[in-house]
Amino acid sequence: MLNIIMNRYFIITVDTEGEGGWSWKPGEHIYTENSLYIPRFQELCERYKFPPVYLTTWEMANEPRFIGRAIEWEKSGNCEIGIHLHAWSNPPQISIKREYLEADYLIEYDYDQMYSKFQLLHDFLTNKIGHIPYSHRAGRWAMDDRYFKLLKDFDIKIDCSVTPGIDWSNNMGSYLGGPDYSNALANISFINGVFEVPMTIRHMHTCGIGSLKHRIKSLVKGKNVWLRPAGQSTHELKSLIRRVYQDSDIDYLEFMIHSNELMPGGSPYFKTKSYIENLFNQIESIFKYVTTLGYQGITLKEYYDIKN
Fold it and tell me: Which residues contact 278 (CB under 8 A, 6 or more apart)?
């Protein structure tokens, strides 16, 4: 018997972080000018009644042009503030074994060192926003059993770091590759007592974007399509949404974007003002589409409360 889904939920996650350092080289200077461009995105979300979840790094937690506004948006029920830790820039600075000039994964540190980095951001953010953050995403998506234990120790209820079908093992940190999520579940579960809401990703045969060679390869061999604007066409995003909509077991879509992608030149994907205008047109097209399918906007905390 098919499981009939009565309600469908649209979750927006924003990796709220500085710009600069996109080559993932440790020590690169990190700026926070993209904080000036987030209000436009917030206004669009509010227009469609889709409250975003701002998963916030150390730099942005310390950026008054962002955090002050975000606190007001959260108090009004128009967003959620969560936690997002970049191990390479989050204090305390700790010497680590290094074989590659790439940004550290938190899981490359021993547990006490992981704990000290997480505690600084957790306590600082808690003091700023007036409550313990409910939701979390790992920097560079890198989780392991120890990290889930850490979240549990800090009473973090929700994680959204798992990327089903994606193997990060060839993406190096300081000396290790990232986690392999090739066989990860695409639906919600509990991992070591933490509610996991995986990113919406599916392997699809699609024309893709980019060079003719790349598009043919995407059509023949398929590609992992993420519910995020960077690297995905509007057609691909809508095809992904339709596929998840037809799944009888999954009642949510998880959209993601980086805050620095909202700023011209803040990321490699959206380099000029015209790129940003096209981005906002694409986002609005997606927002309209999920609305017609009956999805309702919800934060990760609200989703957790419904499912538990």
Answer: none
Tokens of 155: 């009473």
Q: Are strands 194-196 and 189-191 parallel, antiparallel or unpaired?
A: antiparallel
pLDDT of residue 1: 38
- 252-270 burial, b if ≥16 CB within 10 A, otherwise e? bbbbbbbbbbbbbebbebb
Helix-, strand-, coil-residue percentages of the chain, each rounded to 5: 40, 20, 45
Calpha distance 254→144 (Å, rounded): 21
Handedness of CA 71, 75, 79, 85 (dihedral sign): positive
Instruction: Report yes or no: 234 and 247 within 8 Å, Cβ to Cβ.
Output: no
Q: Which of 155, 176, 32 is nearest to 103 (CA)?
A: 176
**Tell me, what DSSP letter sits at residue 260?**
G
- Determine the pLDDT at residue 210: 55
Residue 260 confidence (pLDDT): 96
Q: What is the pLDDT of residues 150-190, one digit of tens each?
A: 999 999 999 999 999 999 999 999 999 999 999 999 999 99
Helix (H) or strand (E) holding 151: helix 145-153
